[in-house]
Amino acid sequence: MIDNKTFIIAGLLISLLIGMVAVFLASGDPDGLESTALVVSGQKELTGLSPEEGDPEVIGTGSYTYESPMPDYSLGEEMGSTGGIIAIVVGTIITMLIVMGASYAIRLSKNSQ
Amino acid sequence: MHIPDAFIPLPQAAVYWIIALVFLALAIRWARSELNEDKIPLIAVLAAGIFALQSFNLPVSMGTSGHLVGGALAAIVLGSPFAAVFILTLVLIIQGFIFGDGGITVMGANILNMGVIGGFVGYYTFQGLLKVVKNPYLSSAVAAWLACLIPALACAVEMSIAGTFPLVPGLVAMGIYHAIIGVIEGVVTAVIIYVLAMARPDLVDTSVGVASV
Predict the structure, then answer these.
(1) Which domain of life is it from (chain A) (predicted)?
(2) Is B3 domain-assigned?
(3) B103 found inside a domain
(4) Pick from B167, B169, B173, B204: nearest CA to B189
(5) What is the DSSP string of chain B?
(6) CB contact under 8 A, B51 and A47
(7) Which of A16, A46, A100 lies at the smallest CB-CB distance from B40?
(8) pLDDT of res. A62
(9) Is A24 on the interface with B (CB under 8 A)?
(10) What confidence score (pLDDT) does residue A53 get?
(11) Average of pLDDT values for A1-11?
């Protein structure tokens, strides 16, 4: 048994480690859904390699799009892995804080009734 | 299996949002009755871990990759499918708004697939199997495998309703990819549940804690 504080710190460290390893080891091939999009649009075979220039999102071009601060978990090409690590670290910590904040908020709203 | 905005027409995306919001409301009700000072660290750490695992695109050969979903993990550890809805919704909101992973108009569909379907399939497969095989780790591994496969198939069906993918090739491709990714999800889920049951047996759901006694 470890106490809550140690548990949070250990859990956050393990999460950050997984995220940072992901920056270097994660596959560059598209995710299952995008890969399926390439298959159905005839750009790739079901079991074949992904084409370098294949663009699965071409399927729905012209509809709604938006800009996000850190698209594709990076800070742009020029920042490379460093940008990737910053994006993942920020994302992991933000996730933990937001979920913790939301949980406390829900708990407080219950207690105040 | 994060659906980008362009893949589903807006009226259909709105329907998935409405379904997702109903489950989110139920998830918040679950959180109000279940969350206590001890469970908040667990839920926060699980969310951070699920965010990290989802950023790790594992190569599965065949020119594709997949990341873990974590719906079964959240539901089994916290003992409710609504835990998965609660955690996955927040993770998906952060991924969509900050990282452009999964669209905003289609976020309802992503919440439905990974949070709701993943959470319910994961939780009830685990509970059902546990009664039969009596082994929480085997049960959680199989549950996590199904909780990766079924949402992927649901996603393929949604794509076909949207007219983005034809039904059969979509089901075949999504099914094959996620049947393989699901094996990794199953193993990792069982390992994480084992570690959590060892570290904090008081926090995990009692049906998981059986094995650590």
Answers:
(1) Archaea
(2) no
(3) yes
(4) B204
(5) -PPPGGGS-HHHHHHHHHHHHHHHHHHHHHHHHH--TTHHHHHHHHHHHHHHHHH--EE-STT-EE----HHHHHHHHTSHHHHHHHHHHHHHHHHHHH--S-STTHHHHIIIIIIIHHHHHHHHHHHHHHHH--HHHHHHHHHHHHHHHHHHHHHHHHHHHTSS-HHHHHHHHHHHHHHHHHHHHHHHHHHHHHHHHH-TTTS-HHHHGGG-
(6) no
(7) A100
(8) 53
(9) no
(10) 65
(11) 88
pTM for the structure as a whole: 0.93
Q: What average pLDDT does this structure show over B103-111?
A: 94
- Spatial distance between the Cα atoms of B165 and A81, rounded to a whole number of angstroms: 34
Identify which of A16, A27, A39 has the shortest CB distance to residue B169: A39
Question: Which CATH number characterizes residue B175's domain?
Answer: 1.10.1760.20
Which residues of chain A neighbour B52 with C-beta distances below 8 Å? 15-16, 18-19, 22, 88, 92
Taking only the tens place, the pLDDT of each residue in A43-98 is 788 877 777 666 666 666 555 666 778 787 777 766 778 888 899 999 999 999 99
Are B99 and A71 within 8 A, CB to CB?
A: yes
Q: Is residue B36 assigned to a domain?
A: yes
Domain limits at B101?
10-208
Flag if B62 and A46 touch (Cβ within 8 Å): yes
What ipTM was assigned to the predicted interfaces of this complex?
Answer: 0.89
**Residue from the list A57, A62, A92 with its beta carbon closest to the beta carbon of B48:** A92
Residue B177 placed within a domain: yes
Cβ of A29 within 8 Å of Cβ of B165? The answer is no
- Domain total of chain B: 1
A75 touches chain B (CB under 8 A): no
Q: What is the pLDDT of residues A10-35, one digit of tens each?
A: 999 999 999 998 888 888 788 888 88
Dump pLDDT digits (tens) for B43-75. 999 999 999 999 888 887 778 888 889 999 999
